[in-house]
Design the sequence.
């Protein structure tokens, strides 16, 4: 949702530079490189028309966003959202706390291995 809002509100400018009828440079976030000298065009602007041409395309994003709060909703919508939120929270139950009855009990120390002493082995 945030990505959609970001894409709908972004705006940028695309500049194209032509020399004659050929496209020389396209820039979106920077200035275009010109093939004409600025000093030469300033001097000869009166004498002849320059062959360079620049096009600027502006893509404007949405800049009037409406921020809605819970109080702006109607009473029916508030009841619906409240019950949806409450039922969603109660949908999942937590795991019960496991009681380990012999948690503090430590096993006795083995003096001898009884299975080896009685020669009883499970096969």
Sequence:
């Amino acid at each position: 949702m945030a990505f959609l809002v970001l894409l709908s509100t972004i705006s940028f400018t695309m500049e194209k530079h032509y020399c004659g009828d050929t496209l020389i440079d396209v820039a979106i976030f920077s200035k275009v490189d010109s093939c004409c000298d600025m000093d030469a065009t300033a001097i000869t602007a009166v004498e002849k028309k320059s062959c360079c041409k620049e096009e600027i395309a502006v893509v404007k994003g949405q800049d009037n966003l409406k921020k809605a709060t819970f109080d702006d909703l109607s009473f029916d919508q508030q009841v619906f959202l409240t019950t949806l939120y409450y039922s969603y929270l109660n949908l999942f139950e937590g795991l019960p706390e496991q009681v380990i009855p012999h948690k503090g009990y430590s096993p006795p120390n083995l003096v001898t291995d009884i299975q080896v002493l009685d020669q009883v082995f499970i096969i």
The two ends are 63 Å apart (CA to CA).
